[in-house]
Structure to design on (178 residues):
């Protein structure tokens, strides 16, 4: 009986032991990348977290369009609105997340996001598992600034688990902004 209890305790301790070192990203030293409508602060990528997660923070200008409709086949995407308001598409439903709101979008679920009309947004994103998304964000910034070919984004969909889809509901929501 004692042996089984010790095995269980050792197993529980092993499960709590991570296969990566703690990750601390100080605000002052964090890498940032930007496009004309947002600044992304890169916090922790999959190569530093044993593949478990990727996290970054995006600050969107007033009414900025964030991402077109897309889905991930492997990762869940988590949104935590720190400040402002974020308009999001989940499936074919559009809603506005306010400061303090939290959303998890599971794999294979179409979604999109933008700062809510007339509002700014400051959002923490977490992807689980991680997928080397910092390179994607750097590429996206270069494309948005006209420094790289948009075809590079299309060609990288499998690598970054970012698959663009058509969403009439999102197209309509974006058209209503004009």
């Amino acid at each position: 009986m004692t042996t089984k209890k010790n095995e269980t305790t050792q197993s529980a301790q092993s499960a709590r032991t991570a296969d990566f070192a703690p990750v601390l990203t100080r605000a002052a030293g964090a890498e940032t990348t930007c496009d004309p409508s947002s600044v992304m602060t890169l916090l922790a990528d999959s190569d530093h977290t044993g593949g478990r997660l990727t996290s970054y923070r995006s600050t969107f200008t007033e009414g900025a369009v964030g991402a077109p409709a897309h889905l991930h086949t492997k990762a869940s995407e988590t949104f935590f609105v720190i400040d402002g308001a974020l308009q999001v598409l989940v499936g074919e439903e559009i809603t506005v997340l306010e400061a303090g709101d939290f959303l998890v979008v599971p794999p294979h679920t179409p979604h999109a996001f933008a700062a809510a009309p007339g509002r700014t947004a400051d959002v923490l994103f977490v992807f689980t598992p991680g997928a080397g998304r910092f390179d994607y964000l750097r590429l996206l910034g270069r494309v948005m600034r006209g420094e790289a070919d948009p075809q590079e984004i299309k060609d990288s969909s499998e690598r970054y688990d970012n698959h663009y889809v058509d969403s009439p509901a999102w197209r309509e929501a974006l058209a209503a902004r004009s």
Remarks:
- The longest helix spans residues 2-16.
